[in-house]
Design goal:
Layout lengths: L10 E5 L5 E3 L4 E3 L1 H9 L4 E5 L7 H14 L7 H10 L8 H27 L5 H14 L19 H10 L2 H22 L1
Helix pairs in contact: 1-2, 4-5, 4-7
Length: 195
């Protein structure tokens, strides 16, 4: 989950009263967007109040989530937020963080298995390039849940369905029948994986 960072231990980020963030590793001021990128890269960091030395990492991570949610990239459904709020002060509150962490770990493992299965099913087929693009979009959508995962799609994963569409439209009847056979074979593999 945590990628090894240069030096030992987490990168220390100091937050000043003027709300500026200072990265002690690079000796430069950074933004919340920089911290979000560090998180997506798997870089471990700790945010401390510059005056009191209090660990405020939790508050800053929550602030990053709020910024992402306000940009229209909502990932947390309203019903989930209501349920989460209702658990504050509840006798089960102490169990929630561990449960959520275990759920996210499970989600990440399932995502990796899904990615492997899809890549294996579509390898060396006419759908391989489309599968790569779809996986890149899936990774980008799930990046907030992956502190150590790849959040940015690879350059070859940029949306470029036009060449694939033109290739498919120019294919002859023989190509169409071979594509149908390949699709049927892949469907069988997917069904076997689902069992």
């Amino acid at each position: 989950m945590k990628k090894a960072a240069p030096g030992s231990g987490p990168v220390i980020i100091k937050k000043y009263a003027n709300r500026r963030l200072y990265n002690t590793e690079t000796s430069s001021y950074i933004t919340l967007e920089h911290l979000a990128a560090m998180t997506r890269e798997g870089r471990d960091f700790k945010v401390v109040d510059a005056k009191t030395e209090e660990d405020i990492t939790h508050n800053v991570l929550t602030q990053i989530i709020m910024e992402e949610e306000s940009r229209g990239q909502t990932m947390l459904p309203v019903n989930f937020l209501r349920q989460l709020i209702s658990l504050y002060g509840d006798s089960m509150q102490a169990m929630v963080p561990g449960y959520l962490e275990a759920s996210m770990d499970s989600f990440r493992r399932n995502q990796e298995q899904f990615k492997s299965a899809v890549e294996g099913a579509f390898a060396n087929s006419p759908f391989a390039e489309i599968a790569k693009r779809n996986m890149a979009m899936f990774e980008a959508a799930a990046s907030a849940f992956q502190p150590g995962g790849a959040a940015n799609p690879t350059p070859d994963a940029a949306p470029a369905a036009t060449p694939a569409a033109s290739d498919a439209s120019s294919a002859g009847d023989g190509d169409v029948s071979s594509l149908k056979a390949e699709l049927a074979r892949l469907q069988e593999k997917i069904e076997k994986l689902g069992k």
